[in-house]
């Protein structure tokens, strides 16, 4: 296997943009594969927390259960637990974006990005 220095030297010697783009595409494919291999498997029924990277901010750190994915498994519906439903209902930053009925115990969010879901249950559940 070539060293990293040899790979860099090889790339520097490539004759044109197309050749560099082919190497860049191969590197991107490998990065995506490595990222996928390290990402936990998100499936309906698993419990989790919405990460602090989501927008709007009123959804940050809410907890609940993963529901159905979209066709590409990049977004999931997310059923909030009772405490998080109440927190979202009372959040002053929510305004009127998420309208939660007074008698609704668990609110379902639609299309939460998979990258914003942190699983909290054991991986083998």
Features:
125 residues; 5-stranded antiparallel sheet; alpha+beta; 21% strand; 3 helices; 5 strands
Question: Any overview of this molecule?
Answer:
With 125 residues, this protein is α+β, with helices and mostly antiparallel strands. The chain contains three helices and five strands; from the N terminus they run H-H-E-E-E-H-E-E. It starts with a helix and ends in a 6-residue tail after the last strand.
Based on CA atoms alone, the radius of gyration comes out at 21 Å
Largest sheet: 5 strands, antiparallel
Number of DSSP-assigned strands: 5
Strand arrangement in the largest pleated sheet: 4-3-2-1-5
- N-to-C CA distance: 39 Å
User: Kindly state the mean pLDDT as a whole number?
Assistant: 91
Shape: elongated
Q: Count up the helices.
A: 3
In the predicted model, the low-confidence regions spanning at least 5 consecutive residues are: none
Task: Name the helix and strand elements from N-terminus to C-terminus, one letter apiece.
Answer: HHEEEHEE
Strand content: 15-25%
Report the helical percentage: 25-40%
Q: What topology does this entry show?
A:
Blueprint: H1 4-12, H2 17-38, E1 47-50, E2 63-69, E3 75-80, H3 82-90, E4 108-113, E5 117-119
Antiparallel strand pairs: 1-2, 1-5, 2-3, 3-4
